[in-house]
Amino acid sequence: MSTEATENNNIYIDKMADALAKYGLYVDDLCKIRILEPEITNQSEKLRVECQDFISRTTEFKNDADEFIGILDSLANEVEKDKMRTIGARNLLRSVEKQREGQKQKIQVQLL
């Protein structure tokens, strides 16, 4: 195709695109008829990509948060176990202390 024929073809396509635009129809880069303006189509595609990226990052954040919560729950369980062991040891120590006090009093009574 000659350069002149290509230019004539482009002019024809531009005129056709202008005529269709009056009726809310548009011609894209591939010469396909579209309902949306090319700029709106591009913005919609950009928004779609940004939304997918946002959803991906949000999902990753949720997974990280769930993992962090799991670690904290595990740590809380360990702390609770240690707390119970400490309370048990303290109670045992008090019991032994009372037994010794009782034995001490018993020995003092026997000495008198």
Automatic annotation (TrEMBL):
Superkingdom is Eukaryota
Keyword Methyltransferase listed? The answer is no
Q: Which organism is it from?
A: Microctonus aethiopoides
Q: Which InterPro entries match?
A: FT20 (IPR028172)
Q: Which lineage? A: Eukaryota, Metazoa, Ecdysozoa, Arthropoda, Hexapoda
Keyword set includes Nucleotide-binding: no
User: How is this protein named in the record?
Assistant: Intraflagellar transport protein 20-like protein
Q: Where in the cell is it found?
A: Cell projection, Cilium
Matches recorded under Pfam families = IFT20
What are the BP-aspect GO terms? cilium assembly; protein localization to cilium
One GO cellular component, as annotated: non-motile cilium
Which keywords annotate this record? Cell projection, Coiled coil
